Request: fold
Amino acid sequence: MIYFSPRSVPALRNYSIFERAQIVSNAASNMPFARKAFSNTLKVLLLIALFWSVLSVPGVAWKIVAIFALGLLYPLVLQPITLTLAVPYIPQAVQEYERSKSYAANEPGSENESSENQSSGNHGSGGGNDS
Reply:
C-alpha cells in the first residue's frame, strides 16, 4: 500500500503532526542501507524526471515559475516514497519515541521533577546553622 500522508498510517493516528514527522524521520533513519539507497535512487530519478520536464516549458519566465512550483511541491512528491518504504520500521520508531518521551518526562531538572520537589517542601535550604 502506498501512503501519501503520515496521518494515513494506522500506527501514527494518535500522534500530533510534529510527533508523526519525528517518528517517520526516525523510521527512515532505521532503514537498512539497501532500502535507503533504493529510496534515495528512486527520489533522484523522480526529481530528474520532474526537472527534465521543465525543459519543455516555453519561455524563461514560465520555466522560472515551473522551477519555483517544483521547489515548493517536491516534498509532497517525495514524502510518499520515504513513508511507504519506512512503514515496516515505524513500530520500532514509535517505541523509541515513547521511550525518549518518558525519559524526558523523568529527566532530572525537568518540569515534572521540579514541581515534585516544590510540592514536597524540598526547597534546597541548607542545614539552618546560622551562628
